[in-house]
Specification:
Chain A is built from eleven helices and no strands. With about 250 residues, chain A is mainly alpha-helical. Chain A has a single domain, classed as Ferritin. In chain A, helix 1 runs antiparallel to helix 2. Chain A is globular and about 55 Å long. Chain A starts with a helix and ends in a 6-residue tail after the last helix. In chain B, about 20% of the residues lie in helices and about 25% in strands. Chain B is built from two helices and three strands, in the order ββαβα. Chain B has a three-stranded antiparallel beta sheet, with helices on one face. Chain B is flat, with a radius of gyration of 20 Å. The termini of chain B are far apart. Classes of the chains: A mainly alpha (about 250), B alpha+beta (about 90). The interface between A and B is medium-sized, with 12 and 14 residues.
């Protein structure tokens, strides 16, 4: 049961990130970046699919689609940062950068998992996430060390998303149990490396690291910001309105 | 796109050892962005193993009005083609 929950947490963060990012499709700042963001979104949908299929296997009765489309807000375990709205391009880049830096470290560790399926899914995701990090990092530096206006905007983006970065490193009972058994990742141990990536990037971007103030929490218990409900209503509309719809 | 944006030509090598082939261009403000945009636009379907990007302004092209002087003179020099040699027996490629 706990392994199912653990797998869903990973799947949900990928799925919700993917859905959020897909909103850029056809609205990107340039044709090139439009495709770049859509590519990243597709990578994340692919990752979500892998983890949801595994969740379905563990569960034994629900399908991957059931998990994606037939759960309500309180049954989703994605990190709150992933459901935050896209805002302007800088907001999206700041969110993507923080998430990608975490995903990179998380999948690096998860690829050593004793659970063969999780380790294989992690190894596959890792390759994609490395590119997400590279892409978002270059944009952080470009915007931070760009014009006066771009610097101002990306700094504001950092400051406002910062409160959602504390959740990356939380460990609840399920995390501890799965991590102690050699299957899951000790998130707390990723913080040092994450800080290194973030500080190094912010230095290069000539941006200021926000101070740790109040940090948001709750997603591991299915508590979310109001952003998730709106996102789900769009994502789940079709399969809920037409339950028998086929591709 | 802003006035800082340049056009970059993209060349993709489909397999190790083969020549890089021109596939199109992208807009970018710096070389990293050019490379990443090229990756995202031109290698989505497993087309490549290596990418070159170069600013379009650095590509020197012959002009079409020079076509006559440049290319016509080689039209009637068929002896420049290696078609007059006999292939040694048993060899498939030279």
């Amino acid at each position: 049961m706990n392994l199912l929950n653990y797998t869903l947490r990973i799947a949900d963060s990928s799925l919700i990130s993917a859905q959020r990012l897909s909103e850029w499709c056809s609205k990107g700042p340039t044709l090139e970046e439009d495709i770049a963001l859509s590519n990243i979104s597709l990578d994340l949908f692919g990752q979500a699919n892998g983890f949801l299929e595994y969740a379905s296997e563990i569960d034994g009765s629900k399908s991957a689609d059931d998990f994606a489309f037939k759960r309500n807000e309180r049954e989703f375990y994605n990190l709150k940062i992933t459901e935050q709205e896209n805002g302007h391009f800088g907001d999206t880049i700041a969110r993507l950068f923080f998430c990608s830096a975490f995903n990179f470290l998380f999948y690096t560790e998860l690829s050593k998992s004793k659970d063969e399926t999780l380790s294989a899914l992690a190894a596959k995701s890792l390759k994609e996430v490395k590119y997400h990090l590279k892409h978002s990092k270059s944009w952080m530096i470009r915007l931070g060390d760009g014009t006066e206006e771009s610097k101002l905007k990306i700094q504001e983006s950092l400051n406002s998303i910062w409160q959602f970065t504390g959740e990356f490193f939380e460990m609840d009972k399920i995390d501890i149990e799965i991590s102690d058994s050699g299957i899951g990742v000790n998130n707390t141990s990723l913080k040092e490396e994450w800080n290194k990536i973030v500080n190094d990037t912010l230095d290069q971007a000539k941006l200021t690291r926000p101070e740790d103030m109040y940090m948001q929490t709750g997603s591991k218990k299915g508590l979310h910001t109001e952003c998730l409900g709106h996102l789900l209503s769009e994502m789940q509309y079709l399969p809920r309105a037409y339950p028998d719809a086929k591709w | 796109m802003s006035e800082n944006t340049d056009v970059w030509e993209v060349f993709i090598q489909s397999k190790n050892g083969l020549a890089h082939k021109h596939v199109g261009n992208v807009h970018a403000t710096d070389k990293e962005m050019a490379l990443q945009n090229a990756r995202d636009l031109y290698t989505r379907r497993n087309e490549g193993s290596c990418i070159w990007v170069v600013k379009s302004e650095y590509i020197v092209s012959s002009e079409s009005e020079d076509g006559e002087a440049f290319f016509d003179p080689s039209n009637d020099k068929i002896y420049r083609h290696p078609t007059f040699y006999k292939m040694p027996e048993g060899s498939k490629n030279i």
